[in-house]
Amino acid sequence: MDQSLTSVREITPGAVVSPPPTWADVAPYTIPTAANPHFIANGLCALLDDSQIDLCGPDRAWFYRRADLVTADAGAQHAAQFGVSFDPTFERVEIHSIAVIRNGQRLDHAPSGAFEVMRRERNMERLQFDGRMTVHLTIPDVRQGDVVETSYTAYGMRKSLAGRHSAFIALEWPVGIVDVRLRQRTPVGRSIAERPYNNAPEASQSVVDGVVERRWRMIERPGFRYESLTPPWTLQSAALQFSEWRDWKEVADTFTPLYEDDGLLPDEVEQEIARIAATESTPAGRAAAILRFTQSAVRYLAISIGEGGFTPRSLADICATRYGDCKDKSKLYVHMARRLGVDACPTLVNTRDGYALGDWLPSAQLFDHCIVRVAVGGKVYWLDPTRMLQPSRLDKISQCHFGWALPLRPGAIGLERMADPPVVHLVETTENVVLAAPESPVTYEWVHTFRDVRAEAAREQFAREGAVSVFRSYAEDMQKTWPNARVIAQEIVSDDVAENTVVVREQYELPNAWATAGSAAHSFTTRDLSMTGMLAPLDGGERKNEIFLGLPGKRTRRVEVRTAKPHQGGWLREHRASTLRHSDEMRVVNPRHLVIEQLVEIKAMTLPAKEAESYRKIQTNMGNNELVVTESDLREGEKINPFVFWIIVTVCGFGFAAIVQALNWMSAQ
């Protein structure tokens, strides 16, 4: 039975059940007798994805309709859950239909459904609150063979956007949708820029009664296969971008005034400004001191409800509450900096897609973070007041690297390219292993030297969790490999704030650490704590997109193994790509002293697609780079062939067993 809506029913303030708007085109779609197997995933076949945007009314309206054919019980469970979220401070939603179509009959649950209203803070653990409400309904009696069709319209946008429309709309997903539709209505004379990506379909256009209507449609376009390890800012699937912002200057001009504030500061902040002025004579010293204050004196807490998502609070509120989000902390930093003669301004960035902003249409809604741009001595620094305390001097502090940034200051004309991350020796690990007889404990020591951003991460972990807790977790991790591991020493050897370097030492005694290797031998395997997992595996086949390597930098590992039996041998292997290098060398210092040195260097964040095979080779080698020492159990006096390999060193980082010839000199006599 069709229970189509003819009246309005309120669910909660800002959410109602109502008929669809008159401008919406609720055109039919095809319901097949059998689902196309190429469009089935998780028990559902997506028949329709329909987005319609109307810019002809007082508020932006976004109509959305979805239809799924249930092909399995698992799909029924998913399709039976309807939910739509909105921010009641500037948005409202109208739910039009939540229908089950079975054997040609339509039953709509929207008119009388028992909706639940929930506030779901998705980022509460990150101290971010957006105040969004979710209207939810569990649809009763959904079965295999049913079509579940839902539709709703969302109205409104933040006042700070001044009614300017912008959006990124995907048209392609890993699982194909049988019918994808997009429609946008604008008054004649209202200009909305468009940019297609990755073979998006062309639009058809009509003009009727002063309304420009543009439509896009894709029928039975198969699912898109994403390439793994592609830079996060790379668009791989078909999409359309819309923007009513004329240029980046317009974005900067709109948001710069929101950060201007001549309000009075409380005495304690004034005292801090005076203290910095008296103790720091240089702009660099003052810039670093302000950063330490805003990072430590103002707790991070983001109340992004309504305009709070785009607009900073007043200086008075920030100082009174002693908490703030990225916008608040940056605003306070800039105010203090200007009082102290430091050239600084708030800056909008995108932490994920920042490297692509230069290729996208201008839009205020492309930013997700606010930092500070500081200029000292002809050099630009990009600082983040929301980070944990960075106590080093300005030239040693790790900076932000997000590609493109939009400084907010009078006269700003557009994006500014941020410097790429430097290639720093981030981690230097030295391992000392003492191997006695297999029945004796092994002594194993790691000394890690962390620099730059890795030093700050280590410093932050120890400050957040406490040294006792951190070292306990280290020991527990060690016991996963060697259950009987006993701590000999765990310590922070040094924390050089001036050079931004932290040195940490761990030493363990490992009883029963040797494993049986055949009927008359035992083996011991080292453990890499610094390089394993740096590079993820890459899918096989031809590559289209660049390979994302992550943060540039160098890591080195030196393993010194002292054994009870003599040996000889060695090797040197190195693999290079244009922005990636891996080397591994073994040397014999003396017959009972092996040294292995390994290096991984990432010179840039990405590697060209044509070098995919080089990446795979290096990643495979790095994935198994442990040293395996195998010793025979034969005792002195037992006669053997003098060319028996007593010690076998396997460097799996090169995918082969490198055999080091080792002679038991006593028993061979």
How does this model look, in words?
It is a single chain. With 669 residues, the protein is an alpha+beta fold. It folds into 3 domains: 9-244, Immunoglobulin-like (Sandwich), CATH 2.60.40; 252-417, C8orf32 fold; 425-654, no CATH class. The strands form 9 sheets. Strands 1, 2, 3, 4, 5, 7, 8, 12, 14, 16 and 17 form an 11-stranded mixed β-sheet that branches. Strands 29-30-28-27-34-37-36-35 form an 8-stranded mixed β-sheet. A hairpin with a 2-residue loop joins β3 (40-41) and β4 (44-54). The longest helix has 15 residues, at 283-297. The N and C termini lie far apart (97 Å). Residues 637-669 have low confidence and may be disordered.
Topology readout:
Elements: E1 9-12, E2 15-17, E3 40-41, E4 44-54, E5 61-70, H1 73-79, E6 81-86, E7 92-102, E8 105-108, E9 116-119, E10 128-129, E11 133-138, E12 147-155, E13 166-170, E14 177-187, E15 193-197, E16 204-208, E17 211-221, E18 239-243, H2 248-255, H3 267-279, H4 283-297, E19 299-300, E20 302-303, H5 315-321, E21 323-324, H6 326-339, E22 343-349, E23 369-376, E24 379-383, E25 404-407, E26 416-417, E27 425-434, E28 442-451, H7 452-465, H8 467-481, E29 486-496, E30 501-510, E31 515-516, E32 521-525, E33 547-548, E34 553-562, E35 571-577, E36 580-590, E37 593-602, E38 606-607, H9 612-623, E39 627-632, E40 648-651
Parallel strand pairs: 2-7, 4-14, 10-20, 19-21, 27-34
Antiparallel strand pairs: 1-2, 3-4, 4-5, 5-12, 6-11, 7-8, 7-12, 9-11, 13-18, 14-17, 15-18, 16-17, 22-23, 22-25, 23-24, 25-26, 27-28, 28-30, 29-30, 31-32, 32-39, 33-38, 34-37, 35-36, 36-37, 39-40
Helix pairs in contact: 3-4, 4-6, 7-8
